[in-house]
Design a protein that fits this description.
The complex is a heterotrimer of chains A (496), B (140) and C (133). In chain A, 79% of the residues lie in helices and 2% in strands. Chain A is mainly alpha-helical and 496 residues long. Chain A has a domain of 212 residues. In chain A, helix 2 packs antiparallel against helix 6 and helix 6 packs antiparallel against helix 7. Chain B contains 5 helices and no strands. Helices cover 77% and strands 0% of the residues of chain C. Chain C has one domain: Helix Hairpins, CATH 1.10.287.3510. The model of chain C has no long low-confidence stretch (mean pLDDT 86). The radius of gyration of chain C is 23 Å and the shape is elongated. Classes of the chains: A mainly alpha (496), B mainly alpha (140), C mainly alpha (133). The interface between A and C is medium-sized, with 27 and 32 residues.
Chain lengths: 496, 140, 133
C-alpha cells in the first residue's frame, strides 16, 4: 500500500482534492461538520504530499508520471520537477490556513450551510486546478486546468451574492474568458507549427523549425503574454482585479490574491521557458516586453494603491504592484533573478493572505472599510494588527522578513546583467510599498478613535493568521530550503 | 389543443430520445459520439419534460436533489474507475493492465473501461444540463 | 504581394478564423450590453475551434474510423477534434455561468446595459455615503 501511494503521489494529491470537492455538496445539506473535516483533511493531504514530493525531488531529482499507460507524445504526463513541487508547497502552505480561517463563519458569510458547502467545493476545485497547472506538461491539459481555476475563481468572487460581488464577478468572467481565448489561440498556433502538444516535444520541434515561422511564433508568444497577462493582472490589463479582489468574501480574496494570480504566472513560465525555450523567446524580444510590463505594473500599481482609501482596495492594487516584481524578475532572466522571482511568489502569497485575512478580521469586527476609520484599532486587536504589521514590513522588504530574500536576489540578478534601471525600480517599489502600507499601521496604533466595542477575533480565526505570519518570519530567517528549490527550478528552466 | 399535441408527442418521444442518448453513450468507444453528446441528449429528454409539463412535473421525475447527487457521482465514478489501475500496481487510468475484460474489437463490450468511464461522464453531463436549465429558468 | 494573396486564399480557414476572432474581441470590448458581450465571447471561442479543426483537415480525407473495405482511405487528424470537444464543454460552462450572473444582475439593477448598471451603482454609493455624513 505504501509503495502504491509513494509511486502515485502526484495524481493522488489532485484526486483527493477533486473527490472531496465533489463529495462536499452531498454532505452539506445535513452534516455540515463532515464538510469542515473533509476540507481540512484534503488540504492536509496536499501539504503532506507536497512536502514528500519536494523531498523526493531534492534527493533523487525530477521524474515524470505517465497517465493511462500511454507514453508521450500520445498520452498525457505529469511532471514533478523543482518548479511544480515548489508551487505545490506554496499552494498547500497558503491554502490550508485560509481554509481553517474560513471554516467558523463561512455559513453566515454566504447565507446558509448549503451554499457554504458549495463554497468549499469551489475552493477545493480551485486548488485542484492550481495543482494540475503546476503538474501538467501538456499544453492543452494546461489550458483545461486554467479553465477549471478561472471558472471556480469567478464563482468564488460571486459567492456572497451581493450586488458588488456579482458585478465584479461578471467583469472578471468576461476579462478572464478573453484571456483564455488568447491562450487557446496561442496553443492552436503552436500546434499548427509543431504538430505536438507535449511541451518537451514542442520545444524540440521548435528548435528545428522556428526560423521558418518567426512571425507565427511571435504572434503565438504575444497571445500567450496577453492571455496570461490578463489572468495575472499585469498593469494595462488589470482592470478586473481591484473590483474582484475587494468585493469577494475575505477567504476568497486571500486565496485569489495570494495564489490564483500566481498560478497563471506559473502557467506563463511553463509555456515560455519549457515549451518555447529561453533562447527563442529572448530572440523574439519577449523578455524585454516582460521587463517593461513588470516595471510599469510595479510603479503604476503602487501609485494607484497610494490613492485608495478603502483597505481591501489598497491591498488589491498592491497585488498588481507585487506581481510586477515577478514579471520583472522573469524578464531579467538570469538564475538569481528567476529564483528571486519564484521566491517572491511564495513570500508574496504568504504576505498577501495575511494582509487580506487580517483586514477581513478587522472589517468584520469593526464594520469599517475606510483606512481613516481604523484609528486606535491596534490596541484593541493586538494580535491581528501585529500580524498585519509583520506582513507590511515583509512587503516593504525589511531584512529577516521573507519579502527581503526575493527582492535581494532580484537586485543581485539585475546587477549581474548590468540592468541598473531594474534595480532602481525594485528599490523604488519598496519605498512606495512603505508609502501605502505604513500609514495603515500608523493610523491603527498611534491615533485614537472610538474603539469601545471592538474585540479581538475568536481563536480559531486568529491562529491561522498567526501561523501564516510565523511562516513569513521563518522564511525570512531561514530561506535556504525554499531558496534551494527555487534555484534548482531556475537552473532547470534556463539550462534544461 | 396545441398543448395536447405537444404533450402527446413528447410523451411518445421521450423514451426514444433517452434510449438514443444511452446508445450514443455506450457506443462512444466504437463510433462517433460518446459521453458528452450522449449525456447531452439524455439531459435534453428531461429538459423537454420540464418545458412541456412544467417544472413541478419535471421535479417529480428527476428532482434537483437527485440531479445534484448525480452531478457529484459522475466524476467520482470516473475517478474510482481510474483508481482500479493504481490498486493493481499500474498507473492511474491504465486500461489493459487494470484487468477489465477487453472483449472483441468492434463489439459492444470492448475497450475495457472506456464504456464505464463514458457512462460516468454521460451521467455527469446529463444531470449538469438539467441542473443548469432548472437554475436558469427558476422564478423567484 | 501576389504570393501573399495566394497564400491567404489557399489558407482561407485560418484567415476566416482570425477575422472571427477579431469580430469576437471587438464585440466584447465595444458593446455595453452584457448579453452581446457574451455573444462576442462565443464568437471568439468558435473562431478558435475553427482554427484547430482547420489545422487538422486534409482535403479528401475521411473521418478517422477504421474502414476495412477501403484500405487506402486518408484519415484526418482526430486529435484536434477531441480537443475541441473539450473546448466546447468549457465554452458551455462559461456561457452558463455568465448567463446566471446576467440574470442576477438584471434582477438587481433592472437592466442589462453596463453603462446603466454603472450609473445606478454610483447613485446607490453616493446616496449611501451621503446618509453616513
Amino acid at each position: 500500500m505504501a509503495a502504491i501511494i509513494s509511486s502515485n503521489t502526484p495524481i493522488l494529491i489532485v484526486l483527493v482534492l477533486l473527490f472531496s470537492a465533489y463529495l462536499l455538496p452531498i454532505f452539506s445539506k445535513k452534516r455540515y461538520k463532515i464538510v469542515k473535516w473533509l476540507t481540512v483533511v484534503s488540504e492536509s493531504v496536499l501539504v503532506i504530499g507536497g512536502i514528500y514530493l519536494a523531498w523526493k525531488v531534492l534527493t533523487t531529482g525530477q521524474f515524470n508520471y505517465i497517465l493511462g499507460g500511454w507514453e508521450p507524445p500520445w498520452g498525457l504526463e505529469l511532471t514533478i520537477d523543482p518548479l511544480s513541487v515548489f508551487f505545490i508547497i506554496t499552494v498547500g502552505l497558503i491554502s490550508l490556513p485560509i481554509a481553517i480561517y474560513s471554516l467558523p463563519n463561512m455559513a453566515c458569510q454566504v447565507h446558509g450551510e448549503r451554499r457554504a458547502g458549495w463554497f468549499f467545493t469551489l475552493f477545493l476545485l480551485h486548488i485542484a486546478g492550481l495543482c494540475g497547472m503546476a503538474f501538467s506538461r501538456d499544453l492543452f491539459n494546461l489550458y483545461v486546468f486554467i479553465e477549471v481555476t478561472t471558472i471556480s475563481a469567478v464563482a468564488l468572487v460571486a459567492a456572497d451574492n451581493s450586488a458588488a460581488s456579482i458585478e465584479a464577478a461578471f467583469k472578471y468572467l468576461i476579462m478572464a474568458t478573453l484571456g483564455s481565448g488568447f491562450i487557446l489561440a496561442g496553443i492552436g498556433i503552436m500546434y499548427i507549427i509543431t504538430g505536438n502538444l507535449n511541451m518537451i516535444f514542442v520545444r524540440r520541434e521548435l528548435a528545428l523549425v522556428w526560423t521558418d515561422y518567426p512571425h507565427a511564433l511571435w504572434i503565438a508568444c504575444s497571445f500567450f503574454l496577453v492571455g496570461f497577462g490578463i489572468k495575472s493582472a499585469v498593469f494595462p490589463l488589470h482592470s478586473w482585479l481591484p473590483d474582484a479582489h475587494s468585493a469577494a468574501v475575505t477567504p476568497a480574496s486571500a486565496l485569489l490574491s495570494g495564489l490564483a494570480v500566481k498560478g497563471f504566472i506559473i502557467g506563463l513560465i511553463k509555456v515560455l521557458y519549457i515549451a518555447i525555450g529561453v533562447d527563442i523567446f529572448t530572440a523574439l524580444g519577449i523578455s524585454t516586453l516582460l521587463r517593461i510590463l513588470g516595471m510599469i505594473s510595479l510603479i503604476a500599481g503602487s501609485i494607484f494603491a497610494l490613492s485608495q482609501h478603502q483597505l481591501k482596495r489598497r491591498l488589491a492594487f498592491s497585488t498588481i504592484a507585487q506581481l510586477g516584481y515577478v514579471f520583472l524578475g522573469l524578464g531579467i532572466g538570469n538564475e538569481a533573478a528567476i529564483s528571486g522571482a519564484l521566491f517572491h511568489i511564495i513570500s508574496h502569497g504568504l504576505i498577501k493572505s495575511v494582509l487580506f485575512l487580517a483586514a477581513g478580521s478587522i472589517i468584520s469586527q469593526s464594520g469599517e472599510t475606510e483606512i481613516s476609520q481604523l484609528a486606535g484599532i491596534g490596541k484593541k486587536m493586538p494580535y491581528t494588527m501585529g500580524a498585519f504589521t509583520a506582513a507590511s514590513l515583509a512587503m516593504i522588504g525589511i531584512p529577516l522578513f521573507s519579502g527581503f530574500v526575493g527582492k535581494w536576489n532580484m537586485i543581485l540578478g539585475s546587477l549581474e546583467s548590468a540592468n541598473w534601471l531594474a534595480a532602481i525600480v525594485i528599490i523604488v517599489g519598496s519605498l512606495l510599498a512603505a508609502g501605502y502600507l505604513l500609514p495603515i499601521v500608523r493610523t491603527a496604533y498611534f491615533e485614537t478613535g472610538n474603539t469601545a466595542n471592538i474585540k479581538e477575533v475568536s481563536r480559531s480565526q486568529l491562529i491561522p493568521v498567526l501561523v501564516l505570519a510565523a511562516f513569513i518570519i521563518i522564511f525570512g530567517c531561514f530561506p535556504s530550503y525554499i531558496l534551494e528549490l527555487t534555484r534548482q527550478a531556475a537552473t532547470m528552466l534556463l539550462f534544461n | 389543443m396545441l398543448d395536447f399535441v405537444l404533450k402527446s408527442v413528447v410523451t411518445v418521444l421521450i423514451p426514444f430520445i433517452q434510449m438514443f442518448g444511452l446508445y450514443v453513450i455506450f457506443h462512444g468507444a466504437l463510433s462517433p459520439g460518446g459521453s458528452f453528446a450522449g449525456g447531452m441528449i439524455l439531459g435534453l429528454g428531461f429538459i423537454a419534460l420540464n418545458v412541456v409539463f412544467g417544472l413541478e412535473k419535471g421535479q417529480e421525475k428527476f428532482s434537483d436533489e437527485m440531479a445534484g447527487f448525480l452531478v457529484s457521482l459522475g466524476p467520482i465514478w470516473y475517478g474510482s474507475i481510474g483508481l482500479v489501475g493504481i490498486l493493481r500496481g499500474a498507473n492511474f487510468l491504465v486500461n489493459k493492465d487494470s484487468g477489465l475484460p477487453m472483449g472483441e474489437p468492434g463489439t459492444l463490450i470492448s475497450g475495457g473501461m472506456i464504456s464505464l468511464i463514458t457512462l460516468g461522464i454521460g451521467i455527469k453531463v446529463a444531470s449538469t444540463i438539467v441542473t443548469l436549465f432548472n437554475a436558469l429558468t427558476e422564478e423567484e | 504581394m501576389q504570393t501573399i494573396i495566394a497564400k491567404l486564399i489557399t489558407n482561407y480557414p485560418y484567415v476566416g478564423a482570425f477575422i472571427l476572432f477579431g469580430i469576437g474581441c471587438f464585440t466584447i470590448i465595444v458593446n455595453s450590453n452584457l448579453l452581446k458581450k457574451l455573444i462576442g465571447i462565443n464568437i471568439m471561442e468558435s473562431s478558435i475551434f475553427l482554427l484547430f479543426i482547420a489545422a487538422s483537415n486534409i482535403h479528401g480525407g475521411t473521418a478517422p474510423i477504421l474502414d476495412p473495405t477501403n484500405p487506402e482511405a486518408v484519415y484526418i487528424n482526430p486529435v484536434t477534434t477531441a480537443l475541441m470537444l473539450t473546448g466546447i464543454v468549457v465554452s458551455l460552462s462559461v456561457t452558463a455561468l455568465a448567463l446566471a450572473l446576467i440574470i442576477k444582475l438584471y434582477r438587481l439593477y433592472g437592466s442589462m446595459d453596463a453603462h446603466v448598471i454603472f450609473m445606478k451603482r454610483n447613485e446607490v454609493q453616493n446616496s449611501g455615503s451621503h446618509n453616513q455624513q
